[in-house]
Specification:
42% helix, seven-stranded antiparallel beta sheet, alpha+beta, Arc Repressor Mutant, subunit A, elongated, 2 domains, 233 residues, 9 strands, 8 helices, disordered N terminus, Jelly Rolls, two-stranded antiparallel sheet
Length: 233
């Protein structure tokens, strides 16, 4: 991995509401002490069960966070996109990482030492409140995910995941989702077997709900996908 320094953290704040709460002096110090590295697709930033000595801020790229089951299969919990921070829960709780963070799309990640992150929380109440709100949001998302796994069938969950990917990552000029996942990764996100995802994607394509081009997915009928995801079909 190539090591480099960004000029200032302020260049990233346009994509990160959390750090907009810190002062100019705090931003200058943060720019000085952080370390930034480039990562290639497939690189692992940290693994489940490892000790994290700081938090990570995604400057560019996409990161997947997953747990590994007893059968060795990945259960994807969420994705991080440009402007997101991750690893902070383990720092706040003083616990090992509960997931593995792996690069899905080439990019750059900044590392902020835990001591400085905690210092910002103690010195800046607005920043502390923002961190708390972010934690609550992620907890709410996790609770919703558990509820979906328990109450929705695979077809409903796949439709919901496609809509979430559309909302979170947007589309390119051709209307394709701005995240390209393997069928295995999509299955890991939905929480089912790869074969089930392949079959349902083919069904969605046949019904003109989506268009497929290898790993590219274009949503053609968002209204019907919403109906499926909400059990209205």
């Amino acid at each position: 991995m190539d090591y480099y320094k960004l000029n200032t953290c302020e260049s990233c704040f346009v994509n990160n509401d959390l750090f907009k709460k810190i002062t100019k002096d705090q931003a200058d110090i943060l720019s000085y002490i952080k370390n930034c590295n480039t990562y290639k697709k497939g690189d692992t930033i940290y693994t489940e069960g490892s000790r994290i000595s700081g938090i990570y801020c995604l400057n560019k790229g996409i990161i997947k966070h997953y747990k590994t089951g007893n059968d060795g299969k990945e259960q994807i919990i969420r994705f991080s996109k440009t402007g997101d921070i991750f690893g902070y829960r383990s720092v706040l709780a003083g616990e090992p990482a509960c997931t593995t963070a792996k690069v899905v799309e080439d990019g750059s990640v900044c590392f902020i030492p835990a001591a400085h992150f905690l210092k910002l929380i103690k010195e800046n109440s607005d920043f502390a409140v923002s961190v708390m709100k972010l934690s609550c949001k992620e907890l709410g998302d996790a609770n919703q995910y558990i509820l979906d796994i328990a109450q929705k069938n695979v077809k409903e969950r796949l439709a919901e995941i496609l809509l979430l990917l559309n909302d979170n990552f947007g589309t390119d000029n051709n209307g394709n989702l701005n995240i390209f996942l393997t069928r295995e990764e999509l299955a890991g996100l939905v929480g089912t077997a790869t074969e089930s995802v392949i079959r349902l994607l083919s069904e969605f394509k046949k019904n003109k709900l989506i268009k497929l081009d290898k790993r590219k997915i274009k949503l053609l009928d968002i209204k019907k996908l919403k109906h499926i995801s909400q059990s209205y079909y």
